[in-house]
């Protein structure tokens, strides 16, 4: 009888423990719930709040601290299609792009209309001669408005490097596999952080602090994950048009370089790298908002940057349907556009 009573007591004890939530358990629960969403719309906003002139020189971009990147992704995993809208803005200028992806085969489609929208905002991006060539090619091919470029076919035409559609699909599958494996690694990394890293704020949001020693570990874990299958090697081989052995060398050099960087970062007491995550949970989606502040500072050189990434999940907005065959720019149409631009360029050269 005493054993039975003890067993009942222990059962209620463990049940009570499982019902007790902590900031960390609530956070991981929200991540799991988010991962089960088959359809979602995600708004991402990247802002560079501060950047040393070193990074402006490195990227050859002036006014880097005014740069903002806005992405809006609607993804339908049930029908394997996604729609991405991109806006890049800095120092009063703006570029808009839009793509539709068939996630079954990896093909990406770019609306021709995006090129016309770019032409309207290209004052500071193109020289006068380049703008003349660009606008002439568009004006002479207005019948293509409303159609879509098959991005890989367009690249094939421009670069004269044949792209095998089967290879494109294999690459898409490899990228998807890497994304899935990386997500698992990230989840395990967050789950292994000490409980004291997770704080609950009065408004119900969670705060999680990540430091440079954590990022050293995360980098190492991600590299190990990517090493477990040949996807990364295959992608590097196809992208760089090199042999498998050469792709392995490129990948090995990259791993050595990143590990060297993070080890030096970890040892240098003057260099600080911290990420503060603020998460707003959502009962249905798991996460409604995720804010990441990444701050780097080198006390010895005054080198610093401050980057903010804000992710907002919202009710699913239906994805634009994939273009039909008649809506895709043909090779002949693309050749004509390129030819029109080339003729204008040659004519400008003679002036």
User: What's the number of extended β-strand segments?
Assistant: 11
Looking at how many chains there are and whether they match, the oligomeric state comes to single chain
Measured between the Cα atoms of the first and last residue, the distance is 104 Å
Shape: globular
Signal peptide: 1-21
Protein name: Lipoprotein
Keywords: Lipoprotein, Signal
Structural description of this entry:
The protein has one domain. It has an eleven-stranded antiparallel β-sheet. The N terminus is likely disordered. Strand 9 and strand 10 form a beta hairpin. Helices cover 47% and strands 27% of the residues. The chain is globular, with a radius of gyration of 25 Å. By secondary structure, it is α+β, with helices and mostly antiparallel strands. It has eleven helices and eleven strands.
